[in-house]
Amino acid sequence: MGMPDAEGHGPPDGLPDLPPEWGRVVVPDDASALAEEARQVRRELRAARRQAISRRPGPAGRAAPGLPVLALLVALLITLTGLAAVTWPRSSRSGGAPTVLPYPTAPIGPLPALDLVGPDDAPVPLRSLLPAMIILVDACVCAEEVGTAAATAPPGVTVLTVTETRSAGSATAPRVRPLADPAGGLRSYLHLSAHPGTAAALLVDRRGTLVRVVPDLGPVTDYRDDLVRLAG
């Protein structure tokens, strides 16, 4: 077995000495008595291995990111995704250019019981002239369009021109009755603003119901059928 060293030191049986800090070492006759201590050693080795993996340096020599850094990265990714969803431009479902309404749409409903001013400065109840096509000419005289509307209107349908001046003025075409609305009651009630160069038209049946608003009086084909229905 073992041999003493050059100076003659060593155990008499020839076995090497154990480190003194180990203390007394007892070897049991039955190896199963060391099972619990073996399990404890394995647990300590696994814990040490996990700790070493978590502290393993990354590619740039830095420690691998821990759980707090990972949670921060996930929160940042969610925030950026939400911002992208809100700010990303959306295409139109129709595939074409969006429809733009150049004029506000007036509410369809009963016409207010207004008294306008006639050419002789006398009050004229508006409802006494129904059914009627009321053309607002304060932004455009539009004499040609007004004349075409008057010539197209069937018998029984009154064609009125209304301006927001103090006096009604004179008729610009045959079969047209001029009136004035100094207070601007019609436009205010209908939320219709004046646009230079255009004349809006209101089609009102005999019951006083506003059935259609023509924002810009144009070709007669746009409203001929409505005038015929007003006379019915």
SSE topology:
Elements: H1 35-54, H2 67-87, E1 115-117, E2 123-125, E3 132-136, H3 143-152, E4 158-163, E5 176-180, H4 185-190, E6 200-204, E7 210-214, H5 224-231
Parallel strand pairs: 3-4, 4-5
Antiparallel strand pairs: 1-2, 3-6, 6-7
Can you describe what's shown?
The protein is of the alpha/beta class and 232 residues long. It has helices spanning 35-54, 67-87, 143-152, 185-190, 224-231, and strands at 115-117, 123-125, 132-136, 158-163, 176-180, 200-204, 210-214. The longest helix has 21 residues, at 67-87. Residues 91-107 have low confidence and may be disordered.
Q: Quick recap of the structure?
A:
Helix content is 28%, strand content 14%. It contains five helices and seven strands. Strands 5-4-3-6-7 form a five-stranded mixed beta sheet. It has a two-stranded antiparallel sheet with strand order 1-2.
Summarize the helix and strand pattern as letters.
HHEEEHEEHEEH
**End-to-end distance, in Å?**
132 Å
Characterize the overall form.
Answer: rod-shaped
Structural category: alpha/beta
- Write down how many β-strands occur, each being a DSSP E stretch of 2 or more residues: 7
